[in-house]
Amino acid sequence: MAARARSLLAGRPQDGELWKALSVAQQMLGEDALPALERAMTLRPADAELAANLGALLAGRGRWAEARRSYEQALRLQPRLAGAHNNLGNALLALQEPAEALAAFDRALAFQPGLVAALGNRGRALLALGRHVDAALAFEQAVAAQPRDAGLHVHAATALAAAGRPVDAITRLRQAVALAPERPEPWFMLGNLLNESGAADAAAQAWERVLALDAGHAEAACNLALLQPSRGEAVLGAALAMGLTGERRAAVLGNLGGLRLRDGRVIEAVAAYRQALAETPLSPQALSNLAQALKRRGDLEEADVVLSRLIDTDPALLTARSDRLLLRAYRQAHAEDAGPLKDEAGRFGQVVQAPAVVRPARAPGPLRVGLVSADLRSHPVGRLAEAWLPALAQRCELHVYASHRADDALTQRLRAAAPRWQDVAAWDDATLASRIAAEGVDLLIDLSGHTGGHRLGAFARRPAPRQFSWLGYAGSTGLAAMDGFIGDRWLLPPNAEAGFVERLLRLPNSFTVYAPPADAPAVTQRDGELCFGSFNALHKLGDEVLALWARLLDAVPHSRLLLKAPGLQHEAERAALIARWPGDAARLVLEGPGPLADYLAAFGRVDIALDPFPHGGGMTTLDGLWMGVPVLTLPGPAPISRQGLSFMQTLGLGQGWIATDEADFLRLAQARSQDRVGLAALRAGLRERMATSPLCDADRLADDLLAAMTA
After folding, report:
1. Assessment of whether the complete model's pTM goes beyond 0.85
2. Residue 699 forms part of a structural domain
3. For residue 269, is it left (φ>0), alpha (ψ between -120 and 50) or beta?
């Protein structure tokens, strides 16, 4: 037929009907029919069928704007062509014009009410417009008309899930996989919904089915690895073996790095993240992952370089700016000049600045206090909150805005003490700020600062008349809308204002309180060789710290140093630490983490705790003190290095435990270690001293806190 048309066209080159016939024949033969169609259209501009065919061919090549013009030309010629209206709607959807697409699908259905394709496409347009309930109804109508179309069941499930009907969505997906068991995507979606509904085993089975159909399905491999970490390495390794490249390979490597990082295998995590970055050199996620792992490894300088590179790619990337601020706070905690860090925090404040939300007139009622945190869980902030939150809730109308997705037993205990609790992780900053303003919060407290999951973007919108930062981050937020930073006289020395844009509020007793673990073992007496100890994270143990502690062991003969931290359960991490240790490695005892009871019991083998610098300990120091272990600390001018100082001063132990420089640190360590009788007496009475001090007086802290914020 095509040959015949060409033969005739040799004598009749202006015959549009022959060009049309040629295009039809070429399409049937799989040849390129576009030139013939375009020539036919030039010669027969009033042929609606030809215009519609040209639109379809252009759409098949992704030339959506040209396809739209062809469909519109066909409909000007024949306005009742239902198929052309439907195809025009598809082009408009591809051009991200869902409202116009919806109108086109409606016209198609007006001319041909039973057009199933238009029913389904109408659902797609409604989904794009965010009209999830209407989209679900449209897809249900399409399914009713064509119940054996697996794709329609999948679309219906997407809309039902978006409309908040996960059970119905799962039902639709089960029908889709029954109709098309060879298609991996319905199985993948089914696994996602089952996992979200808490059916972890069924979700794993669905994702395993995906991988059986497509062993290189990166997303399913990543999900399964996260769900079943014990199999994670094998699952992700199998996906990598399928020859993935680019973004898909980077995604799998990124998840592999995350798996290793959570297990404390930081060196291996860094290697995986470097490979991911090699696949996608400009990926913000790959850069961020690598920076976090480098920080965990203690490579703060390289982590800073990576974060700076990330910020250069997108100066408005707030998470990266916060990560770099946190990193530089670690590095500069002993710097005398706090100006550079304050200036960088101020630049963050300028980037995050947003118009203030409208606050309604205050309704009568008690003082309303709001807490915003991503760490009200098994986390140092969560553990501290367990001590003071119930006391604060008794003194005001307390609103809690929890911005973390994973709850645990500690979350449940905190939630029980704060009935006005809202989970806000899924809300954007504008929505969160509007809700806080609508609820009339008088005093709003940020418990995150620049740590992960913070909501400083909400605070920048000024949802409350007075706003404060406390506990989560020992530095300036940089926000003009943050009225104060809360500490105490020890955490915030007289010249600390130079490092903050906020006003400093110095509580008269302690900046926090401690909730002793219910199952903490009794304090035990020590005998035998003197043992120093640090249970702080490895990234706090920089080369300067290790060098000073090695000199300390040299100065105190027959002493040992117990280091207990996540990662040290792995040989590679222990070897890396020993390689950095400048002294006799035989005097080191290296241990990984364990359950809380075992961790607390391990303090029974320590005589004196050593506070790292410039980033000092916090929760580990409080735990050690409760277990009868005093801490020797070397504070700097920045709050992040002064928690140990604050705790010891609050306990009345400032004399003899707070060093002014490295030489003084060594002198004090020698003096304390030689007084074994004094150490034993202090150990025996330290828990009682702490229990009766401001460090365990939640009522006093709640009163101090409210007085400072309302002054």
Report:
1. no
2. no
3. alpha
